From TrEMBL:
InterPro entries: ELO_fam. Signal peptide: none annotated. The lineage of its organism: Eukaryota, Metazoa, Ecdysozoa, Nematoda, Chromadorea. The keyword RNA-binding does not apply. It is a multi-pass membrane protein. Pathway: Lipid metabolism; fatty acid biosynthesis. GO terms for molecular function: fatty acid elongase activity. Keywords: Fatty acid biosynthesis, Fatty acid metabolism, Lipid biosynthesis, Lipid metabolism, Membrane, Transferase, Transmembrane, Transmembrane helix. GO terms for cellular component: membrane. This is Uncharacterized protein. The chain crosses the membrane at residues 55-80, 110-131. The keyword Kinase does not apply.
Length: 137
């Protein structure tokens, strides 16, 4: 792939033209039997675009997260709620469990979004540690 073709591919990814014209689903077919009221991602495409447009706000998001860290640090619940989808995909094939995504508006998508926000905040936390020249351990 040459440089111009590579940039065109990246532009198509960033503008979602590859996703809009593709008829194949990248998501697993699993649907949760029970979903808590807050475990839903409305308009997942706009959430993705929002993160793409504001990627440079990592520090601001990180500071906000540090304030809310205690309420977002319950990883065990996220694992338990997401394992159901993973085990369903694993029961059909290993390929599906690794290569297929979760339904974009379902329970696992909510926890994946929470995980992504958590990683952004951890990056900001790491920046503060590095800038203060403190040891990591």
């Amino acid at each position: 792939m040459d440089m111009i073709g590579g940039m065109d591919f990246i532009n198509q990814l960033n503008n979602f033209t590859l996703y809009r014209t593709n008829n194949q689903s990248f998501h697993s077919g699993y649907r949760y039997k029970y979903r808590l009221p807050f475990e839903h991602v409305n308009d997942s495409m706009s959430k993705t675009i929002w993160f793409q447009d504001r990627w440079h706000h990592l520090i601001t998001i990180s500071i906000a997260y540090i304030v809310l860290k205690q309420s977002l640090s319950n990883i065990i619940i996220a694992f338990v709620r997401s394992a159901e989808d993973f085990l369903f995909s694993l029961s059909s094939s290993f390929y599906d469990s690794v290569c297929r995504s979760v339904q974009p508006s379902d329970v696992a998508a909510f926890w994946a979004l929470t995980f992504a926000v958590n990683k952004i905040a951890e990056f900001g936390d790491l920046l503060f540690i590095v800038l203060r020249k403190r040891p990591l351990m």
